[in-house]
Design brief:
It comes from Urochloa decumbens. It is built from 40 helices and no strands. The protein has about 700 residues and is mainly alpha-helical. Helix 8 packs antiparallel against helix 9, helix 21 runs antiparallel to helix 22 and helix 37 packs antiparallel against helix 38. The chain is elongated and about 110 Å long.
Length: about 700
């Protein structure tokens, strides 16, 4: 290793000699005078500032290769590293090594912080040995963490093993643990646990930072381990929380929230001797993450009553909760508090984006736009919030324009913004704009993101471009069940159920476990082609996967059997469903109606109402069609009146047409004419004359 280090240092010193900063002054040719000298023009102030920022100043240390002032040269190393000029800093370091001038530990710390590639990290490591700093525990710990962050676990382990008396202190081990946490990206719990066990075996004493890394690795895991959480909790109790109960109990509470153990998290929160803003914020964020909105608001109120100062992090957690609850008045109070306390501070940008989203979810687009345009620091997050608000409030055209407007402001759409605008293209069937967004995602290396690919498949399918949908699906590295389902749905919506069935069989051959959405799409395909045998095969998969108790799947099974004429099987599935609701009741009513059992369908509707099931708009559409087919005009009038007056549902043109046909067929022309006039008024249609039609 020393020979390698010296070789690296000597070879790189040749590059330092050729560096323009170290060329002797006699080789520099003087500038030639202009034949027609012009008077100097002073550039504008803004141009001067830009020129100063873009052209770094040349220091005396760089121009004097014979200097041996170690402190001045080390200061220059730190300046170059902090300015992001790492190649120049390494060239200067090569020259220092060649001339035997030692660099300070602070200079190496700055170089390690500036490293972004494994090659540069190994180069700095070699110079550490040359400069005699290979026993500095602080620098070696930083090097361990850097190697792990760059993915060089073997190099990190070699540095750690070579450290003198590494078992006597926790500092180097903490660097190893922290490096695993930074590099793990959801899978750090295993390596951190192994390193922690090895650390204890080596005799190093764990401190609060050690346990903090262990807790972060568990909470940041894609599948938090409850066994590791309880074992860590027991170790913390045994060691009196390493003298830092506030910090570690907050981390432990976050771990229990991530594991889904809300009661244990609340118990840890209640056992805290003192609760600062970080603890309150962790509790509020945990409740919000688990969908417990009322509890999050309660703890926010208790926090304010406790006299704890609210910061932007807490507000970022509580504002989305207010939006989910549609509590506009409370949101306005929070908005006033933000304006009064934080004003135009830069760190309030995320809170303002949350306020835009909150107002949009409450249906108040005017206030949402006012907050957005009054913000001085708009970014991709705030633009995405406005875009999502337009899409959810029935303005998809404006949402699509936002993606262009944000780029006109010089803000590039991020992955979330692209994922937000693709469903808008699907709704508008905007093929041209969808292709442009697809190209942008490719240029920005957002693909192959699974979620974006699934949205692209759906978008191209809605635009009748199945070839593009199939191409996006084919280029996916990891074909998830959601992607398969999106492709199946695209073929179903384009009137090709046979290909959809073939795709479903192909998905099963890849050992993918279909979810409830994929099953319902296949049952819908069976309805379209009237394939009872295939429907029974899918029903077998439902039983195997134990999905029949799910209301969505049970309703689609009833619908499939009813459409295919097997009313007895539809009745059996309905009777076996324990959690009956409006969805399953509507399906069985529709099944009886399709099979000309009109009286039984009306009896089922009466049974549904007597059992306090709330009918939906789809339920009324089905029952009115059944009345139309059976010629039951009096019953239809009563059902129509109940839908509009009792359940406050808006009648569609199809509902009006059913009533008009029934009344006209029964000879009640004047009543039918009143409904026709009302329909024309509501939907801005010309008023037909039913008398002339009757004649």
């Amino acid at each position: 290793m020393p020979s390698m280090a010296s070789a690296a240092a000597s070879s790189s010193s040749l590059a330092a000699i050729r560096h323009p900063h170290f060329l002797p002054a006699k080789h520099v040719s003087p500038p030639q005078p202009l034949t027609h000298p012009l008077p100097p023009r002073r550039p504008p102030r803004a141009q001067l500032v830009r020129g100063a920022a873009s052209t770094p100043r040349t220091s005396q240390a760089e121009l004097r290769p014979d200097s041996k002032n170690a402190s001045a040269l080390s200061a220059e190393l730190r300046r170059l590293a902090r300015a992001g000029r790492l190649p120049s800093a390494l060239s200067l370091l090569d020259h220092l090594s060649h001339r035997g001038v030692p660099a300070t530990a602070s200079a190496f710390a700055a170089l390690l912080s500036a490293c972004r590639s494994l090659r540069h990290a190994r180069q700095v490591h070699a110079h550490l040995r040359v400069h005699g700093l290979d026993t500095n525990e602080f620098l070696l710990a930083r090097l361990v963490e850097l190697y792990l962050a760059l993915g060089a676990a073997d190099d990190a382990r070699a540095v750690l093993d070579a450290m003198p008396q590494r078992g006597a202190t926790a500092y180097s081990w903490n660097a190893l643990l922290h490096g695993h946490v930074r590099r793990g990206r959801g899978e750090a719990a295993g390596p951190v646990a192994d390193a922690f066990v090895e650390m204890r075996a080596a005799g190093a004493d764990a401190n609060e930072y050690t346990y903090g890394c262990v807790l972060k690795s568990i909470s940041g895991s894609s599948r938090p381990s409850m066994a590791m959480a309880t074992a860590t909790h027991a170790t913390l109790i045994k060691n009196a929380f390493a003298g830092a109960p506030w910090m570690l109990m907050t981390g432990l509470m976050d771990v229990y929230f991530k594991c889904g153990k809300v009661k244990l998290a609340v118990r840890v929160f209640e056992e805290m001797p003192e609760r600062d803003v970080v603890a309150w914020g962790a509790a509020i964020a945990g409740f919000a993450h688990k969908g417990m909105k009322r509890e999050a608001l309660e703890h926010f109120r208790w926090m304010v009553e406790d006299g704890v100062d609210v910061n932007c992090v807490v507000l970022t957690s509580i504002v989305p909760v207010i939006g989910e609850l549609r509590a506009r008045n409370l949101g306005r109070e929070i908005h006033g508090f933000v304006v009064k306390k934080f004003g135009d501070r830069k760190d309030v940008a995320k809170v303002q984006a949350g306020l835009v989203d909150m107002y949009c979810k409450c249906g108040d687009m005017l206030s949402g736009r006012r907050v957005f345009y009054s913000s001085k620091t708009r970014n991709a997050v705030s633009w995405t919030a406005l875009m999502s608000g337009y899409a959810s409030n029935g303005r998809p055209d404006q949402a699509l324009r936002c993606i262009a407007w944000m780029q006109q402001e010089g803000i590039r759409p991020d992955l979330i913004a692209v994922g937000t605008v693709l469903p808008v293209c699907t709704k508008l069937k905007a093929f041209k704009e969808g292709k442009q967004i697809h190209a942008f995602a490719l240029r920005r290396w957002f693909l192959p993101n699974v979620s974006l690919c699934t949205s692209l498949i759906t978008m191209y399918g809605s635009c009748d471009c199945l070839e593009y949908s199939h191409r996006v699906f084919h280029d996916m590295d990891k074909k998830t069940v959601q992607a398969w389902t999106a492709l199946v749905d695209a073929y179903l919506k384009n009137g090709d159920p046979l290909t959809a069935v073939d795709l479903f069989r192909s998905m099963l051959l890849t050992n993918r476990r279909p979810d409830a959405v994929a099953i319902t799409r296949m049952l819908s395909a069976c309805c379209d082609i009237g394939a009872l045998k295939l429907g029974k095969e899918v029903h077998g998969h439902v039983l195997k996967l134990r999905m029949e108790p799910l209301p969505l799947v049970a309703a689609e099974l009833v619908n499939m059997y009813g459409t295919c004429g097997d009313l007895n099987s539809a009745q059996r599935v309905f009777n076996r469903t324990e959690s009956k609701g409006s969805l399953t009741c509507t399906s069985i009513i529709k099944a009886f109606g399709i099979n000309q059992k009109h009286k039984e369908a009306l009896n089922l509707f009466a049974w549904m109402l007597s059992n306090k099931f709330v009918p939906t708009k789809a339920t009324f559409d089905v029952i009115l069609r059944i009345c139309d087919a059976a010629g039951l005009h009096d019953e239809a009038l009563g059902i129509f009146s109940s839908m509009v007056q009792e359940y406050k549902l808006e009648a569609s043109q199809e509902n009006f047409d059913c009533i008009i046909r029934l009344l006209t067929g029964a000879g009640r022309i004047s009543e039918a004419q009143r409904f026709a006039d009302l329909k024309s008024t509501l939907f801005n249609l010309p008023t037909p004359s039913l008398d002339s039609e009757q004649q």
